[in-house]
Amino acid sequence: MNPIQTSQQIDPRIYSLYDEYCHGAMDRREFLAKAGALVVGGMAMAQALFPRYANAQTISFTDPRIKASYVKYASPGGSSGEMRGYMVQPVSAAPSKFPAVLVIHENRGLNPYIEDVARRLAAAGFLALAPDGLSPVGGYPGNDDDGKKMQDGLSRAKLQTDMLNGAVFLKNHALSSGKLGITGFCWGGGMTNALAAELGDAVQAGAPYYGEPASSENVGKIKAELVIHFAENDPRINTTWPAYESGLKTNGVKSQAHFYAGTVHGFHNNSTPRFNQAAADLSWSRTLELFNRTLKS
After folding, report:
1. Are residues 118 and 66 in the same domain?
2. Fewer CB near the last or first residue (10 Å), C or N of the chain?
3. How far apart are the C-alpha atoms of 29 and 236, rounded to whole Å?
4. pLDDT in tens, 282-292
5. 169 Cβ partners below 8 Å, 6+ apart?
6. Domain that holds residue 38
7. pTM beyond 0.70
8. How far apart are CA 57 and CA 53, in angstroms?
9. Residue 257: helix, strand or coil by DSSP?
10. How far apart are CA 290 and CA 286, in angstroms?
């Protein structure tokens, strides 16, 4: 992974403001204005945090190890009844079935970073599907600001159904071995937890990144093994962990949680200065170890 090159040191208060911008009602103009008023050079720091997706590609879409395409699948009960996703399969010498991993995007649709994550999984031997939750309203619009507004306008329940139907479609795909893992980031991390509960023993493994926990009444339904990734400096998410940890232990769910020192929310996303190379690499190695162990055996 190649980190964003920047000489700026981002003030921690700007990171906090950016988290509020990403997950609240603040628009880009208000975010920049508040950043500029908060600290000298704050507006420049804030602008540096916007994603630069050219930096996010680690596996080319022409990589000979993989084959990528956009697919459509039925999604009864979802936002429109049909979904579109990015499917990437390993290239093997003979027809084969592969363990499958659903990749769930952040709260802004299927951006290039998430597509790259799907390619990384395919290069590691998994059949990967990254649904675009925005496909019922035209698809990821090419920028995160509009993507976030579009996703905010969708029914959360129907959007979760669209992700659930993606998991079912992937698990039953002709190229799938039938073993299923789920990973996701931010909103997708929370959805990873939620789907692990909703799908029960249909999911073998989950690797949520800095996501909200499954609802307390549903934690007992989780049968998958979880490896849960947290940023060290992410109070909005981290305050939810003690209760979730207690629920997982009470219900005998096999899980590990990892907090990565010196990181902020979004540390795996290599398109912004939030990216932390060491933490991203370590967390990804743990995710792959989980999926290799639980899905390939």
Report:
1. yes
2. C
3. 23
4. 999 999 999 99
5. 73, 74, 129
6. 9-50
7. yes
8. 7
9. strand
10. 6
